[in-house]
């Protein structure tokens, strides 16, 4: 029995040592993997690579970016959910993945039970693009026109139940207007119809270049701060709206059970990377801005916006 106990101790020792190594002060001691559940080139991919590559350098480790796109982020999320919780695999998330989609369809993961927040990374500016033919010169005039013409203003989105639709639904609720939603197969075709006058409004980052060029009107920017491309345009919140819902942000999650030391250290490195002026400049060039939140603040944001978007979806009776 003594011999068996001794041998059992030898077998167990490496596992204990491995666990201590993973959760100890020496984290990270190998490459960190970030699963991005969307294709390369999109805002979630761009912001993750810019900030997390710098964060990895600060931690003294390389970062592997693993794009696993499909099913509105569910494929990548399920992969991370089922990966070892050793502190070396993390997940990029969007607002939709943890605050919106669960209100609309079944998911192979539970955002609140299977994952824990690490940090928020960045946020996209959203332009309220308006066709020049709309007879309004500011937000108040636009709302007055919409109220006087219920059902005659169409707003386009990147598709049914996307965050770009929810922005329009939020505006309807808060402004007390009845714009009609027109879903498209992506943001680009919606923007083309906005430019030609087939629709009158679109809430989307794709409107920003056309706003800057003067091809579209814009009475408000959705986000916490003004867009540098047109700093004279106030945010929706500055004008008393945009208080429900939330922003189009990107963050990092960890599967539940990930060592807290790994979460804390990665979150701190993300915060430091976000303060790098060179990183900030590259983010702005891509239409985003650093909006770092630590684990506690990010978790509070997710919970608040999850409830807010759920309320919007219920009030607007949005279905997939």
UniProtKB/TrEMBL annotation:
Region forming the signal peptide: 1-19
InterPro entries in alphabetical order: BUG, Bug_dom1
Presence of keyword Signal: yes
Domain of life: Bacteria
UniProt keyword annotations, A-Z: Signal
Record flagged with keyword rRNA processing: no
Family according to the record: Belongs to the UPF0065 (bug) family.
Protein name per the record: MFS transporter
Provenance organism: Reyranella soli
Lineage: Bacteria, Pseudomonadati, Pseudomonadota, Alphaproteobacteria, Hyphomicrobiales
């Amino acid at each position: 029995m003594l011999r068996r106990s001794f041998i059992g101790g030898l077998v167990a020792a490496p596992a204990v040592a491995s666990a201590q190594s993973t959760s100890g002060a020496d984290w990270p001691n190998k490459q960190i993997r970030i699963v991005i559940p969307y294709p390369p080139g999109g805002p979630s991919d761009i912001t993750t690579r810019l900030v997390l590559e710098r964060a990895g350098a600060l931690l003294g480790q390389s970062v592997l970016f693993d794009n696993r796109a499909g099913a509105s982020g569910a494929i990548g999320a399920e992969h991370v959910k089922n990966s070892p919780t050793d502190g070396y695999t993390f997940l990029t998330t969007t607002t939709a993945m943890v605050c919106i989609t669960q209100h609309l369809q079944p998911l192979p993961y539970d955002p609140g039970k299977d994952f824990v927040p690490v940090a928020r990374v960045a946020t996209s500016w959203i332009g309220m693009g308006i066709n020049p033919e709309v007879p309004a010169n500011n937000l108040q005039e636009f709302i007055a026109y919409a109220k006087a013409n219920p059902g005659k203003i169409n707003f386009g989105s990147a598709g049914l139940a996307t965050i770009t639709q929810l922005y329009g639904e939020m505006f309807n609720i808060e402004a007390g207007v009845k714009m009609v939603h027109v879903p498209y197969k992506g943001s680009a075709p919606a923007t083309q119809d906005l430019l030609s006058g087939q629709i009158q409004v679109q809430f989307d980052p794709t409107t920003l270049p056309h706003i800057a060029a003067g091809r579209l009107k814009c009475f408000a920017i959705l986000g916490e701060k003004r867009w540098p491309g047109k700093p004279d345009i106030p945010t929706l919140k500055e004008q008393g709206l945009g208080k429900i819902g939330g922003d189009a942000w990107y963050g990092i999650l960890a599967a539940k059970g990930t060592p807290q030391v790994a979460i804390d250290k990665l979150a701190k490195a993300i915060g430091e990377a976000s303060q790098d002026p060179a990183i900030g400049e590259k983010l702005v060039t891509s239409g985003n801005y650093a909006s770092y939140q630590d684990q506690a603040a990010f978790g509070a944001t997710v919970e608040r916006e999850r409830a807010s978007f759920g309320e919007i979806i219920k009030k607007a009776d949005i279905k997939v």
